[in-house]
Specification:
Number of domains: 2
Distance between the termini: 36 Å
Strand order of the largest sheet: 5-4-3-2-14-1-15
CATH class of the largest domain: Alpha Beta
Radius of gyration: 24 Å
Shape: globular
Number of strands: 15
CATH architecture of the largest domain: 4-Layer Sandwich
Order of helices and strands: HHHHEEHEHEHEEEHEHEEEEEEE
Helix content: 25-40%
Largest sheet: 7 strands, mixed
Structural class: alpha/beta
């Protein structure tokens, strides 16, 4: 499906190049070799991208981090090449209408389109360098009468969606992530899933050593990418083998994976609970199933008293509706969406393409005294770029209070 989409977009890009050639290159009567060079460049870029995608799709080793890195940069170059020109072409179209009406050439919208295209080019270049590697800390404060007095000030560091196999220089960004978490001095840390991108083999001994450096107890759940459903060569390693290795490595790092299960957290004489919920089987992707997917709320909350404040970890934020309907979970922590790695913010208003697909897609949500927080994640998929949505570590501070409320302290 992605291959067909890129092929269609590449054809559209060629049409845009033809439009630019007629409107700019040929109109300005530049030299013959410049005209030939532009045509050769337009054809070469699209052919290289299509060839790279076809080769990648036919590779038996396409889960290899080296191939993942290579194809992600192909996507990056494609978007960096195509989007600014597409914006120029669309914005400059009114000039053609103006010329037809007045009979005089118009360049106003062409200039505007050029300026916007340049801005988009630099935004994407920023997103592929600083934007994908600068970690931002967001802080949220949750107040509830259900939070015990002993847990007033309890600090939770939330991180998600590292997609280790996709990370460029994973040792550096994961090291900075661990340092950021430790600097917050949390009581616990929570990983909301998609630790790996395809399979457990992405967790090399060096990465295991780095992630073992988190100085707080870590509780984790499985995301869709952790379930092995994207493994192409299932003879080399099956999804179930990958999941078992992943769980073993997490335990080796000192983490506590929660597979439809709960634990008690004790502070002084008081207790709260933390629960981990699996990725829903009906959300499976890539046409593959996994024996480790599937939500079992009855099993997850078995033996957990309703009187205790509960923190639930669910990779998929869509499960919040199920939890609300069941009267479970005071605070739900999720990931999965990472704002589709593109967010535009003006004051408190924010927009992302994720709005087209998800009702709740980033940040803090509240309903009936219960909260959901969706972390924007650390890593990326498809293309190594983040525009307006930096890699995120969230610090959540619990407060005992008479009234339920939630607020973002550091956006």
């Amino acid at each position: 499906m992605i291959l067909y989409a890129i092929f269609a977009i590449s054809l559209a890009a060629l049409l845009v190049d033809y439009y630019i050639y007629k409107r700019v290159i040929r109109t300005h009567r530049w030299g013959k070799w410049i005209r030939i060079g532009y045509i050769a460049y337009a054809l070469a870029v699209d052919l290289i991208i299509i060839s790279a995608l076809v080769s990648y799709r036919n590779s038996l080793d396409r889960e290899s981090p080296h191939l993942l890195h290579a194809i992600s940069w192909v996507f990056f170059i494609f978007f960096l090449n195509a989007l600014p020109k597409l914006i120029y072409a669309v914005v400059s179209l009114p000039d053609l209408l103006t010329k037809k009406i007045t009979g005089k050439p118009s360049h106003l919208f062409g200039y505007i389109g050029t300026a916007l295209g340049v801005c988009v080019f630099w935004a994407m270049l920023w997103g592929g360098t600083v934007g994908r590697s600068k970690i931002k800390v967001r802080q949220v404060e949750i107040t509830s009468p259900r939070i015990p007095v002993a847990f007033d000030g309890f600090r939770i560091a939330q991180f998600s969606d590292t997609h280790v196999g996709m990370l460029i220089r994973s040792d550096k960004i994961l090291g900075r992530m661990v340092d950021t978490i430790n600097a917050l001095k949390p009581d616990i840390a929570v990983n909301c899933g998609d630790l790996v991108n395809t399979q457990a083999g992405e967790l090399t001994p060096e990465i295991v050593s780095t992630l073992s450096g988190i100085q707080a107890p870590v509780y984790s759940v499985l995301g869709n990418h952790d379930l092995g459903i994207y493994i192409h060569d299932t003879v080399k390693i099956s999804p179930s083998e990958s999941v078992n290795q992943l769980l073993m490595l997490q335990k080796q790092m000192g983490w506590t994976p929660l597979v439809n299960e709960s634990r008690f957290l004790t502070r002084g004489a008081d207790r709260i609970t933390i629960s981990g919920i699996n990725f829903p089987a009906n959300y499976k992707l890539n046409g593959h199933a996994s024996s480790m997917s599937g939500v079992d709320l009855e099993k997850t909350f078995s033996g957990i008293p309703d009187s205790l404040y509960n923190i639930s970890i669910s990779h998929a934020p869509q499960l919040w509706d199920n939890l609300l309907a069941a009267g479970m979970s005071d605070l739900t922590l999720s990931g999965h969406i990472h704002s589709m790695q593109m967010k535009f913010r003006i004051g408190k208003w924010a927009w992302s393409p994720a709005r087209w697909m998800y009702t709740r897609w980033s940040g803090l949500y509240e309903k009936d005294g219960r909260q959901l927080y969706i972390n924007d994640g650390i890593g990326y998929v498809l293309y190594p770029m983040r525009i307006g949505t930096y890699p995120e570590v969230t610090l959540i501070v619990l407060r005992h209070g008479a009234d339920s409320q939630a607020k973002t302290i550091r956006p």
